[in-house]
Design a protein that fits this description.
- It is a single chain.
- By secondary structure, this protein is α/β, with parallel strands linked by helices.
- Helix content is about 35%, strand content about 25%.
- Helix 1 (about 15-25) links the parallel strand 1 and strand 2 (about 30-35).
- Helix 1 (about 15-25) packs across helix 11 (about 295-310), helix 5 packs antiparallel against helix 12 and helix 9 packs across helix 12 (about 315-335).
- It is globular.
- The termini are far apart.
Length: about 350
């Protein structure tokens, strides 16, 4: 009989979304057995909503529970690393929201801990899940798309002063970054998921929308390892919120839907170069089963990986690629220079990208 994994969630903000979209849609696979939050009012509200009896304000208490299989970390970013390391040391599987760590040095510490841990670690990148992005991935992997030419990734969202009326948002020490780190990181991961690794970065960041410490506008030019040229644009001052990828390949152009928080959903615009290519693409995608969207899809994929004793569908190597891009963009903006990836331990921002 397949195992039903018992989950403990730390942080009932985005943690509630993990329940609604992820665990509650797979009740044959997961049981949310305990919630943890420092805010007792929020803790009780979410626990009451989903009839979860076990509640604690101590993450150490949660990790010591022998009947918990998975620790799901949904706290503010600055404490992710310490919680990941404790959870891995406790023998649990671990799920963690973005950003996985606050530096590449911390990420390498987590990688070392994961290698000797009993459990596995899965970073959250839920935008990879949905029929649109998965069809594009399948077409690219099949070779039908051909040579990659150019791409654009636009994260055009809106956040005002009310959003930042919060003790940890908008601050380097607690949020670890701005639009690049906490918002655009999802679409940028989707970009590299489809276009592969980045080779070089030139970027500018600025704070133009809100009176905060961190950046809320970013413009970057990327050279991908495959030779494609890509531009990134991100802001928290757009009066219409959209997330959009448009990728031009030799034989097909892809354009995501424009839903700000679910650009992986179908349908995408898939524009073939000619009728012959179009027929091949149609035949390929017609064979694909529907894919769960966002947390639904990622938690389902995680479950199957656990059951097969395989690596998670999203890995620490994916998080490293994401945080290397973040580090390169900040360093390029600070130094007005072109930055080559990957970034090693000798890089000036390896231990921290924060000012």
């Amino acid at each position: 009989m397949a195992k039903r994994y018992r989950v403990g969630i730390i942080g009932c903000g985005i943690g509630r979304s993990h329940i609604v979209e992820g665990y509650a849609t797979h009740q044959d696979k997961y049981e949310v057995a305990c919630l943890c939050d420092l805010d007792e009012k929020r803790l009780n509200a979410v626990a009451d909503e989903f009839n979860i009896s076990k509640r604690t304000r101590s993450s150490d208490d949660l990790m010591s529970m022998p009947d918990i299989d998975i620790i799901d970390i949904c706290t503010p970013p600055a404490i992710h690393t310490s919680l990941i390391l404790k959870a891995l040391a406790s023998g649990k599987h671990v799920v963690c929201e973005k950003p996985l760590t606050g530096s590449l040095a911390e990420l390498d510490e987590v990688v070392a801990a994961e290698k000797i841990a009993k459990g596995s670690l899965m970073p959250i990148f839920q935008y990879r899940y949905g029929d649109g992005v998965q069809q594009a991935r399948r077409i690219i992997e099949s070779g039908l798309a051909g040579k990659p030419y150019v791409g654009t990734a636009e994260t055009l969202w809106n956040r005002d002063a009310t959003y930042y009326d919060n003790p940890w948002r908008g601050r380097w020490a607690t949020e670890l970054g701005g639009v690049l780190m906490t918002h655009a990181i999802h679409l940028h991961d989707m970009l590299t998921y489809l276009m592969g690794p980045v080779d070089r970065v030139f970027a500018r960041t600025d704070t133009r929308v809100n009176a905060i410490e961190v950046e809320d506008c970013v413009s970057a030019s990327l050279l991908m390892e495959n030779g494609a040229l890509v531009s990134l644009t991100s802001t928290l001052g757009s009066q219409e919120e959209i997330s959009r990828l448009r990728l031009a390949f030799e034989n097909v152009t892809f354009e995501s839907n424009h839903a700000a928080y679910s650009p992986g959903d179908g349908p995408w615009r898939i524009i073939p170069a000619n009728e012959e290519v179009g027929k091949k693409i149609e035949a390929l995608v017609s064979e694909m089963a529907p894919v769960g969207r966002r947390f639904n899809g990622q938690m389902e994929a995680f479950y199957h990986a656990l059951e097969k004793n395989e690596p998670p569908p999203v890995r620490t190597s994916d998080a490293r690629r994401s945080l290397e891009l973040v580090t390169a963009i900040y360093h390029s903006s600070d130094t007005n220079s072109d930055i080559r990836l990957p970034i090693g331990s000798d890089h000036p921002k390896y231990k921290s990208w924060r000012p």
